[in-house]
Amino acid sequence: MRIPFELAETLAVVVEEGTLDAAARRLRLTPSAVSQRIKALEEQLGRVMLVRSKPARATAAGDAVVRLARQLNLLEHDALGELGDESVRMSVALAVNADCLSTWFLDPLARLGQRHPLVFDLHRDDQDFTAGLLESGTVMGAVTSRARPVAGCRVVPLGVMRYEAVATPQFVAEWLPAVTAAALAQAPVVFFDRRDELQAIWLRARGVDAAPPRHYIPASTDFARAVELGMGWGLLPTLQSEAGLDDGSLVRLGGEPVDVPLYWQQWNLRSALLDAVADEVISEGRRVLRRGSPSAG
Asked: Whole domain around residue 187: which residue ranges?
């Protein structure tokens, strides 16, 4: 059994674009021709490759073919580069959590963009879920909290993102003059989204089982801004809170920090381009993140 590259690439484009019509425009084909290619691929492999929903998405079998197509595109780009053709601008799909994206992740990408003809397709998700985007073939590299390698990938430790509970002095005076379990059960707190466990981890460590009033603010910079505005207390990365702590606009609530170990995972391919991405990301991550064992979480 062989997987024709043209058909695999067509499937990948449909998944990326979300519809047959959009994929047809990108491939400069008719929607009927795109549909015929998907049908031919499914007949050749004896599996359903595509869920024809809106947006269209790959099946579990289709994920494997999409991943293959993207890996072959990466290797083709490397080969063309070795032949002296750098005219094709490669799209590099990466996954990263919101806090890394807002604090340090863009710096290495900017340096890469100065040296290589690249555009970046960033997928933002919680660090506990970015590995799933590697498994599906959606991205070729990810910042993740998962230490065990995803199948077909390799993993490198980056460091620890430390979070501390902070609030404005005015908020503390009003809600937490004594940071007790009873006071914390009543004080408004800022959560990133409904999958955010960091605040809950810190509260449990302080003996708080009740659910205090919660703001949900699903953007890292805006989350930090909400805390700075006194809407509630929250756990901020030290990379975001250090300026406020230095100038007195934020204060620590005490308690143990929550440390989140982070790892870089990428496809296990010999690719000059992917290795260049990894080198920059790993170097920057190790420069800005803490070393050593996590304290909690």
From this structure: 161-259
Quickly state the pLDDT bin for 80 (edges 50, 70, 90).
confident
132 vs 245, residue with greater confidence: 245
Which of 241, 253, 258 lies closest to 163 in space, CA to CA?
258
CB contact at 8 A, 140 and 69:
no
Compute the distance between CA of residue 15 and CA of residue 216 in angstroms, rounded to an integer. Answer: 30
Total domains, the chain: 2
CATH number at residue 50: 1.10.10.10
**Helix boundaries (H) for the chain:** 5-17, 20-27, 31-45, 60-82, 98-100, 106-115, 130-135, 169-175, 181-184, 198-205, 220-228, 238-247, 272-288
Asked if residue 276 is part of any domain, the answer here is no
Global pTM exceeds 0.70 = yes
In a domain, 198, yes or no: yes
Considering 46, 62, 78, which residue would you say is the last residue of a domain? 62
The values of phi and psi at residue 56, to 5°, are -65, 145
Residue 191, in any domain of the structure: yes
- Express each pLDDT in 132-144 by its tens digit: 999 888 999 999 9
| Last residue in a domain, options 62, 94, 111 | 62
Cβ neighbors of 263 (< 8 A, separation 6 or more) are 143, 144, 145, 146, 147, 155, 156, 157, 158
- Asked if residues 84 and 268 have their Cβ atoms less than 8 Å apart, the reply is no
